[in-house]
């Protein structure tokens, strides 16, 4: 009888463990309208997302994550046929590659981005000096109230709602008595507008593409380093994005063909380099325009010591 009880209890315990391992998150979608170039009136738009989980929130460009099913199908096809496929011709590329983590409850912020194959991050403690005003406005279905602050060399106007009791918002913004529904700078270089939300019952921190890339040497483990080291290394990465890859691929392999393709490994690397350089050149109008960096000695990519 005791053995029978164990057989009954064991699956129940396993189910309980599995259920507890599943994390629920609230996902808020923000349409971002922005001017990528300082000297141009052209406006680009991209969908971003703020995932609010139990112990943190994560803000990111949602372009790649939105295409998870397309990427999964393409990867599975490549695995089945053993033939390489250039996914850059199939999927839309993001406008921004960084993520912003806010760690609850003290709201330590982590700016996270990939430098070559590694995921680096630096931490910040940002205290916004919000001025809450009496102005109120209905934005979509939300009753909102106005607030202003100075940040990153820009003056920002936010509209928040106490209907959603999260003191969070897009990018690095937080600290109002409710979720930020809309926020934009005075010159409308950057403007976020809440456009939808959903509950993610089995939430995962990383997308399918990010998890799949770990099989090919792309780490998802954040390496915390000093902000100045991060920025110097990122500048080096922008100047020569394939530097680390060239050191890892023997010269005699560059003329070899990609599996199931007429493209050589060397040509594939050149294509990736062009895509990255085009990505970096696509904007010269940062969200925080007061960032000033004395580059000094540039750190070698992927070899920054913590």
Automatic annotation (TrEMBL):
Domain of life from the UniProt record: Bacteria
Keywords annotated in UniProt: Signal
Residues of the signal peptide: 1-21
Any Pfam family hit: Porph_ging
The protein's name: GLPGLI family protein
Organism: Epilithonimonas bovis DSM 19482
